[in-house]
Amino acid sequence: MKLVVIGNSGSGKSTFARRAAGEHGLVYFELDAIVWEPHQIGVARPIEAARAELAAFIGAHERWVIEGCYGDLAEAALPACTELIFMNPGVAACLANNRRRPWEPHKYDSAADQERMLPNLLAWVEGYYTRTDALSYAYHRSLFDAFAGSKRELAGDS
After folding, report:
1. Which of the two ends of the chain, N or C, has the fewest CB atoms closer than 10 A to its terminal CB?
2. What is the per-residue pLDDT for 158?
3. For strand 150-154 and strand 27-30, is the pairing parallel, antiparallel, or unpaired?
4. Strands 150-154, 83-87: parallel, antiparallel or unpaired by DSSP?
């Protein structure tokens, strides 16, 4: 089993992916970990480095789940995956989930740092359906619709 999980920030990707990893013995991989410099959310690593790390992960593991909002990286993983999951609960659910997200020490040095970033994150989440970049609904929808393999679109906490 090799799953790719895409969707907006706060859509339930991480929760779904961690649950699938535990239930099916999959190695969990969060794309945030390769996109941003460690403890420097907002400071992107070179895309070539992220792509190389993703390829190395895929090559090193037989069973995995990869999750993230980065459509271009998800797209790079699709040829190796057995199922694509599109988390699409709507913007209100994503905003609510981000507001109640606990401190993520693997991303932020302190809960206060995470809280300071929240207004920017919420504004970005609200733009999901109107943006057209690789982190947008339009990009995710296009990936999902074009994917010929097994796929599911989930709303809410499915």
Report:
1. C
2. 42
3. unpaired
4. parallel
CB 125 within 8 A of CB 46: no
pLDDT for 90-113, tens place per residue? 999 999 998 998 887 777 778 888
Which CATH number do you get for residue 106?
3.40.50.300
* CA–CA dist 50, 122 (Å, integer): 25
- Give the residue, 131 or 102, on which the prediction is more confident: 131
Residue 29: what pLDDT? 98
- Write out the H or E segment, with its range, that includes residue 152: strand 150-154
Backbone φ and ψ for 54, nearest 5 degrees, come out as -65, -45
Which residue range(s) make up the domain with 50?
Answer: 2-154
pLDDT at position 99 is 92
Residues 6+ apart with CB under 8 A from 4: 65, 66, 67, 74, 77, 78, 81, 83, 84, 85
Q: In the chain, how many domains are there?
A: 1
Closest by alpha carbon to 152, among 94, 85, 104, 58?
85
Can you read off the two tokens belonging to residue 5? 């999980």
Alpha-carbon distance 83 to 65, whole Å?
Answer: 10
pLDDT digits (tens, 9 = 90+) for 40-68: 767 889 999 999 999 999 999 999 999 99
